[in-house]
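Duplicate of #3305? Posting structure anyway:
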C-alpha cells in the first residue's frame, strides 16, 4: 500500500499531538478460568507462526487432529465444536492462521487464511484455504512439485497474504514465499540466499508497509538467525541481515512487527525471540530477544529452556502502538515439572501458566484480550486448553452492533471539551475513558439518549495531556470503543 498525501498528513499530524509511549507499561493481566478447546489434540504448531487469531469478534484456533486441520471458535466466552478446514484425504500437520481487518468507508471486513503442511500427494506440500469474511474458498496446493515443502507460516494485510515455508531441494533447504494479492496467487519466490540449509521461517507484517521474515540458517556452521523484509506489498525484498553471531546454535525464531502505525512513525520496529545454546553446556537452551539498534539479550537467566518463546504484541486501546511484548516458553529443568511461563517486556513480569503441559505453550493478543494455549492430559486424553485475560482498555469495533451505530464522539479532534453522543435509547451503562497506556482517566454513568460532556479533566481535576484516547461504552453485554484526539 502506498501513502497518499492525505495519509502522510494525518500520520504527521498524529506525531505532533501524541506524546511518547516509551515508558508505557503493560496493564496487569487477570487470567480467567481454565477452558477446554478441543480433544484429542496431540500437538500444537511451532511457535514460529500463529495458531490462533482474533477476527469477527471471536478467537479462532487451528490445530491438526486425526490428519485433518480443524478450527475451534470462541464466541461469547464459549468454544464451539471444531470445524474441518482441510479436504478429504488430508494428512495434515503444522496449521497456521492469519487475519487482519480491512477498514472500508462504512464498514470493515476480516478475511482469513489458513495454511498447513499436507502429505496427501505422497510427500509434504503446502496447502492453503481462504475465507473472504462470509464463505470459505476451495483449498489450494501452493507448492505441488517434486520437492518437499514443510513448516508453512502466513501473515496478512486485509486481502493480501504472504506464505513462507522450507523448500527441500536435492542440495539443501531454502526459504520460499508466495503472495496472494489482486485476487490471485503470485509466482513462488526464493527468499533466502543460503549455501547450506535455511529453515524454520517466521513471518510478521506492518499495517502500512510490508513483510518481515526471519529464519534459521547453517551457512556458517552452527545455526544462526537471519532476517529479510519487503517494505511494500509486491515490492522487492531488501538484502538479508544476519541477526545472531553466537556460534552456539540460534534456532526457532519468532518475529513480531511491533509498529502498527506504519513506516512514517517507526519503520524498523520489530523484535525476534529465539532459542540459543549456552556456552559450555550445549544440551541446554535459553530464549533470547533481539530488537533493531539494541544488544541481543536473554529474557530469562535460567539455562534450562526447551523450545522457542512464542511471542505476541499487546496493543494499546487504539491498535496503533505496542505497549509490550509477551513471550511464552516451556522450561524443562533437570528435575521438577515441565513449566510454561509467560513474561512481558519491558516490565519483566513473569507468570506460570501451567506445570502439567504436554506441549509448548502459544500466546496471542488482540485489542481486547490475550489468549494462551497448551496441551494437558485430561482423563488420559491429550486436551487443548486455554486461558484468556481481558485487557482493561478493550472495546468493540465500530459497526458491530446497534449500540455501535448510536455512539459518537464530537468534536474529534478537540481542544477543550468532548461530547459523547447517544442517538438511540439504551439501558443504563458506563462510559470510561482510557489514555494510550491503558490508564483510566474518566468514568461516568450513561443511559437513555442524550449528550454526555467531559471537560478533559481527570479525577484529580487535572487536564489530560494531548494525545490519543479511547472512550469505552458498556451497556449490558455490549461494549463499543471510539478513539479521539486531544490537541494542545
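Output from current build:
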Amino acid at each position: 500500500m502506498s501513502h497518499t498525501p492525505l495519509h502522510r498528513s494525518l500520520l504527521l499530524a498524529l506525531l505532533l499531538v501524541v506524546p511518547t509511549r516509551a515508558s508505557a507499561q503493560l496493564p496487569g493481566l487477570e487470567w480467567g478460568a481454565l477452558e477446554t478447546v478441543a480433544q484429542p489434540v496431540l500437538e500444537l504448531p511451532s511457535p514460529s507462526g500463529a495458531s490462533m487469531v482474533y477476527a469477527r469478534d471471536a478467537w479462532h484456533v487451528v490445530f491438526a487432529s486425526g490428519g485433518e486441520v480443524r478450527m475451534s471458535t470462541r464466541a461469547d466466552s464459549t468454544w464451539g465444536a471444531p470445524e474441518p478446514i482441510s479436504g478429504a484425504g488430508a494428512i495434515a500437520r503444522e496449521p497456521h492462521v492469519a487475519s487482519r481487518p480491512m477498514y472500508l468507508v462504512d464498514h470493515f471486513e476480516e478475511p482469513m487464511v489458513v495454511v498447513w503442511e499436507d502429505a496427501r500427494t505422497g510427500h509434504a506440500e503446502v496447502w492453503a484455504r481462504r475465507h473472504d469474511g462470509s464463505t470459505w474458498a476451495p483449498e489450494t496446493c501452493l507448492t505441488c512439485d517434486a520437492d518437499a515443502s514443510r513448516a508453512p507460516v502466513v501473515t496478512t494485510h486485509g486481502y493480501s497474504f504472504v506464505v513462507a515455508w522450507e523448500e527441500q531441494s536435492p542440495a539443501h533447504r531454502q526459504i520460499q514465499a508466495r503472495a496472494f494479492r489482486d485476487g490471485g496467487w503470485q509466482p513462488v519466490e526464493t527468499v533466502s540466499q543460503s549455501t547450506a540449509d535455511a529453515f524454520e521461517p517466521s513471518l510478521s507484517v506492518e499495517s502500512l508497509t510490508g513483510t518481515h521474515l526471519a529464519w534459521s540458517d547453517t551457512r556458517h556452521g552452527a545455526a544462526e538467525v537471519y532476517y529479510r523484509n519487503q517494505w511494500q506489498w509486491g515490492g522487492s525484498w531488501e538484502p538479508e541481515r544476519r541477526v545472531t553471531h553466537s556460534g552456539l546454535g540460534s534456532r526457532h525464531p519468532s518475529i513480531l512487527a511491533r509498529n502498527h502505525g506504519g513506516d512514517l512513525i517507526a519503520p524498523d520496529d520489530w523484535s525476534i525471540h529465539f532459542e540459543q545454546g549456552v556456552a559450555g553446556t550445549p544440551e541446554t537452551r535459553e530464549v533470547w530477544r533481539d530488537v533493531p539498534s539494541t544488544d541481543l539479550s536473554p529474557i530469562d537467566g535460567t539455562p534450562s529452556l526447551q523450545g522457542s518463546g512464542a511471542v505476541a504484541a499487546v496493543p494499546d486501546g487504539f491498535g496503533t502502538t505496542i505497549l509490550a511484548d509477551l513471550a511464552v516458553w516451556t522450561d524443562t529443568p533437570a528435575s521438577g515439572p515441565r513449566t510454561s511461563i509467560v513474561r512481558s517486556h519491558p516490565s519483566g513480569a513473569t507468570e506460570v501458566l501451567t506445570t502439567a503441559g504436554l506441549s509448548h505453550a502459544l500466546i496471542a493478543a488482540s485489542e481486547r484480550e490475550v489468549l494462551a494455549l497448551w496441551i494437558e492430559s485430561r482423563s488420559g486424553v491429550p486436551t487443548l486448553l486455554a486461558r484468556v485475560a481481558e485487557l482493561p482498555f478493550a472495546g468493540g469495533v465500530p459497526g458491530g452492533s446497534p449500540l455501535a451505530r448510536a455512539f459518537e464522539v464530537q468534536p474529534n479532534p478537540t481542544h477543550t471539551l468532548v461530547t459523547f453522543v447517544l442517538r438511540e435509547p439504551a439501558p443504563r451503562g458506563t462510559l470510561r475513558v482510557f489514555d494510550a497506556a491503558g490508564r483510566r482517566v474518566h468514568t461516568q454513568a450513561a443511559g437513555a439518549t442524550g449528550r454526555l460532556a467531559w471537560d478533559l479533566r481527570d479525577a484529580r481535576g487535572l487536564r489530560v495531556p494531548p494525545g490519543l484516547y479511547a472512550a469505552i461504552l458498556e451497556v449490558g453485554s455490549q461494549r463499543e470503543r471510539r478513539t479521539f484526539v486531544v490537541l494542545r
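Confirmed duplicate; merging threads. The chain has two domains: 5-390, 402-486. Residues 5-390 form a domain with the Neuraminidase fold (CATH 2.120.10.30).
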